[in-house]
């Protein structure tokens, strides 16, 4: 389920150069608020420096620029990174990111993963790890169970629409694979966090809103929570290429607020902690609105949309929603694949 032309074009935008940085240290580590235990609390986020996602060998998701952080690290480097985290960790809840999948043995070898569970697992009460669907396998679920703490596995589904997965997001996966992986994780007692991408390329903002709500409906019984990730334009990606040439605009905060409010009413916990919010490359209205961004985060953390609804009701958004309708009508996608080809060929090399 890969659109070969799209995948090759995305690949052509990826630089051959590797990221720079101390291979014995994670890319980054910070504390933020999340609600992995059902209430807002301090949560440590670690991004391990790795060789990166297996999908990078062939292509990349159309919005993903994490390859910019990857480099050739040894097993020894990974042990040092884990030691650094163990020595500096100061919270009970940890989210582990890599520039790919923590459960991919080519990225984090089995013995390194076990070392992490041993060094960090005993210090914390809750863990989240990210993985592509293909690495959510029974033997790795057994390993996670042995840590003895609740674990949430975050899966980047992005959309439950296979057509978008293939022709817009370039995920190299399918909805069926997500369903199987989520069921495997749940069978072993794992929680699931599902990432949905808000406003992938080539579709209108209205279509993107519909896609988020449709996706939440399809996955509500499979996932513990849903994280709506509004597009954040990363370097050397297809989305950046389109954006630089005026062929893409990140979603507006008003639309994000609406899908968050509608999504929360559907069933699972729905959160959104926008990266790059109120910046040109991230979710933003034409006039930046700090209050709205704060309310989106606050509603996510508390799973209470009362204030957000009141704020949205206090605004006259009729002309905004008219504009969203107009924009949708202006983007008549009678031949989706042709539109992709035209978009990719209409712009000069940059
Ligand atoms: S699967 Fe994740 S890490 Fe890999 S290319 Fe896609 S978004 Fe990036």
Notes on the protein architecture:
The protein is α/β, with parallel strands linked by helices and 350 residues long. It has one domain (4-345): Aldolase class I (TIM Barrel, Alpha-Beta Barrel). It contains 13 helices and eight strands. Strands 1-2-3-4-5-6-7-8 form an eight-stranded mixed sheet. Strand 4, helix 4 (138-147) and strand 5 (151-158) form a beta-alpha-beta unit. The longest helix has 15 residues, at 205-219. The two termini are 28 Å apart. 42% of the residues are buried. The chain binds iron/sulfur cluster. Iron/sulfur cluster is lined by residues 53, 55, 60-61, 64, 66, 99-100, 132, 156.
Structural domain count: 1
Counting helices, strands and paired strands, the structural category is: alpha/beta
- How far from one another are the termini? 28 Å
CATH superfamily: Aldolase class I
Could you give a short account of the major beta sheet?
Answer: 8 strands, mixed
**CATH T-level fold name:** TIM Barrel
* Order of strands, widest sheet: 1-2-3-4-5-6-7-8
Look at the structure and give the mean pLDDT.
Answer: 94
The total of helices stands at 13
Beta strands, count: 8
Helix content: 40-55%
Q: How would you sum up the global shape?
A: globular
- How much of the sequence lies in strands comes to 5-15%
What is the fold's blueprint, element by element?
Layout: H1 4-13, E1 28-34, E2 41-47, H2 75-88, E3 93-97, H3 110-121, E4 126-130, H4 138-147, E5 151-158, H5 162-169, H6 175-187, E6 191-198, H7 205-219, E7 225-230, H8 238-244, H9 253-264, E8 269-271, H10 290-302, H11 306-313, H12 318-330, H13 336-345
Parallel strand pairs: 2-3, 3-4, 4-5, 5-6, 6-7, 7-8
Antiparallel strand pairs: 1-2
Helix pairs in contact: 2-3, 7-9, 9-10, 10-11
The site of iron/sulfur cluster (SF4) has 10 residues, from loops.
């Amino acid at each position: 389920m890969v659109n070969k032309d799209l995948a090759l074009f995305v690949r052509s935008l990826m630089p051959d150069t590797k990221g720079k940085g101390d291979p014995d240290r994670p890319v980054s580590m910070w504390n933020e608020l999340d609600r992995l235990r059902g209430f807002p609390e301090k949560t440590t986020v670690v991004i391990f420096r790795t060789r990166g996602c297996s999908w990078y060998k062939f292509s990349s998701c159309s919005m993903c620029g994490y390859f910019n952080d990857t480099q050739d690290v040894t097993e020894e480097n990974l042990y040092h990174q884990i030691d650094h985290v163990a020595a500096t960790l100061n919270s009970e809840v940890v989210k582990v990111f890599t520039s790919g999948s923590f459960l991919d043995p080519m990225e984090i070898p089995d013995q390194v993963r076990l070392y992490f569970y041993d060094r960090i697992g005993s210090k914390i009460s809750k863990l989240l790890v990210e993985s592509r669907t293909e690495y959510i396998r029974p033997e790795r679920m057994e390993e996670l169970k042995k840590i003895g703490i609740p674990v949430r596995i975050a899966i980047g589904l992005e959309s439950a629409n296979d057509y978008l997965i293939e022709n817009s997001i370039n995920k190299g996966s399918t909805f069926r694979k997500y369903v199987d992986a989520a069921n495997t994780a749940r069978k072993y007692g794992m929680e699931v966090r599902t990432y949905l991408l808000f406003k992938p390329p080539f579709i209108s903002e209205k279509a993107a809103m519909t896609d988020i709500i449709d996706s939440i409906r399809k996955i509500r019984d499979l996932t513990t929570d849903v994280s709506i990730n509004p597009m954040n334009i990363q370097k050397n990606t297809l989305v950046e290429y389109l954006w630089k040439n005026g062929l893409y605009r990140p979603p507006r905060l008003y639309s994000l607020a609406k899908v968050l409010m509608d999504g929360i009413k559907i069933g699972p916990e729905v959160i959104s902690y926008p990266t790059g919010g109120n910046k040109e490359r991230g979710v933003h209205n034409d006039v930046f609105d700090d209050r709205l961004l704060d309310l989106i985060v606050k509603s996510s953390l508390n799973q209470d949309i009362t204030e957000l609804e009141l704020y949205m009701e206090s605004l006259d958004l009729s002309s905004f929603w008219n504009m969203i309708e107009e924009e949708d009508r202006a983007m008549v996608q009678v031949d989706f694949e042709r539109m992709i080809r035209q978009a990719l060929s209409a712009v000069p090399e940059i």
